[in-house]
Design brief:
Number of strands: 11
Structural class: alpha/beta
GO molecular function: 3-dehydroquinate synthase activity; metal ion binding; nucleotide binding
Shape: globular
Pfam family, one: DHQ_synthase
EC number: 4.2.3.4
Strand order of the largest sheet: 1-2-9-6-5-3-4
Protein name: 3-dehydroquinate synthase
CATH topology of the largest domain: Dehydroquinate synthase-like, alpha domain
CATH class of the largest domain: Mainly Alpha
CATH superfamily of the largest domain: Dehydroquinate synthase-like - alpha domain
Enzyme class: lyase
Distance between the termini: 43 Å
CATH architecture of the largest domain: Up-down Bundle
Number of domains: 2
Strand content: 15-25%
Helix content: 40-55%
């Protein structure tokens, strides 16, 4: 699989990527190496990593608890303290081995520890491979508000090893597929067509193409001042839904991808009302999403709290909720506004 080059780092694939990592470690002569894992990746991914990564340097493993609920500043403080106790300095390297929580949080920890040390991302879930680990965004949640605290910081490299996907559940694979669908609707409709029309997709090819798309967008707009906002298609409503289900004790939490899938249906509806996105395609999207993800019940009483959470979205300006909407597949418009009534209507459409 061909290496993809970003501004200051490269995204390497398969087992040869570990040779690139060994070369990086040798070239930079790091004083110490730390590997950040969670409960799951320590058991299921770390043995493969150690089998393939050849180095004489001693490695210290730092383990955190798995799950979005632990993606917060308190966890960061724990990691910073452990690194300090183990003698980490500015010439240390942090390797993140895990899903989006690990790569987001680990990148933030590294980029702020002693004002910044090098880090390498090794994503182990589909979601983190095609989205979270790529593009230089790091950060943690503030309560249930997604990614409110963070910085832009690039890793030294990213390793994409699809073998790690054998360690995650079918539900997690579906979750990551939502981000691939996002790239399909906004940039390459063949991705969406292949997913909705085929139970046996070549996931490695889909991963590579998705990263290509994200990398092209980030190269054009690294700090999300303009066109990079397209990567939030489905996320404005999706993040509100995800946060609401996370904070509500009577609700079962849903995955990031399941929430973004709901967001894409709702925002497709907004696209048809505000732009010229064909209603036929709105129904097409809804049918495909429900076929893949099933239906999540959103009660009428849930809608206002979801909208309240959406008002904290990072794209908002002057208190107005901003959307990415579609004129058509592969034809998007950023910085769109929608009334609360229309947002309510879009969620009711998903629920109907």
């Amino acid at each position: 699989m061909t290496t993809i080059n970003a501004t200051t780092y490269s995204i390497h694939f398969d087992e040869k990527a570990y040779h690139e990592l060994a070369s990086l470690v040798s070239k930079n002569n790091y004083s110490s190496i730390f590997v950040l894992v969670d409960d799951n990746t320590l058991e299921h991914c770390y043995p493969r990593f150690m089998q393939l990564f050849a180095t004489d340097k001693p490695i210290e493993v730092i383990q955190i608890e798995a799950g979005e609920i632990h993606k917060n500043i308190e966890t960061c403080m724990g990691v910073w303290n452990v690194m300090t106790e183990l003698g980490a300095d500015r010439k240390s390297l942090l390797i993140t081995l895990g899903g989006g929580v690990i790569t987001d949080l680990g990148g933030f920890v590294a980029s702020t520890f002693k004002r910044g040390i090098d880090f390498v991302n090794i994503p182990t879930t589909l979601l983190s491979m095609v989205d979270a680990s790529v593009g230089g965004k790091t950060g943690v949640d503030l309560g249930v508000l997604k990614n409110q605290i963070g910085v832009f910081a690039n890793p030294e490299m990213i390793i994409i090893d699809a073998e790690y996907l054998h360690t995650v559940s079918t539900r997690e694979i579906r979750s990551g597929t939502a981000e691939i669908i996002k790239y399909g609707m906004t940039h390459d409709i063949e991705l969406f067509n292949e997913i909705r029309g085929n139970d046996q997709v070549n996931i490695v090819d889909l991963i590579h193409r998705s990263i290509e798309i994200k990398n092209e967008v980030v190269l054009e707009d690294p700090k999300e001042q303009g066109v990079r906002k397209v990567l939030n298609w489905g996320h404005t409503i999706g993040h509100g839904v995800e946060s609401y289900f996370l904070e509500s004790p009577e609700k079962e939490a849903i995955t990031h991808g399941e929430a973004i899938a709901i967001g894409m249906v709702c925002e497709a509806y907004l696209s048809s009302k505000i732009l010229d996105f064909p209603k036929k395609k709105v129904l097409e999207i809804k049918e495909a999403i429900i076929n893949i993800y099933g239906k999540v019940a959103i009660n009428e009483d849930d809608i206002q709290p979801i909208i309240a959470l959406m008002k904290h979205d990072k794209k908002n300006i002057n208190g107005e909720i901003n959307f990415v909407l579609l004129n058509d597949y592969e034809d998007f418009k950023i910085n769109c506004k929608a009334s609360e009534d229309l947002i309510q209507e879009s969620i009711a459409f998903y629920n109907s």
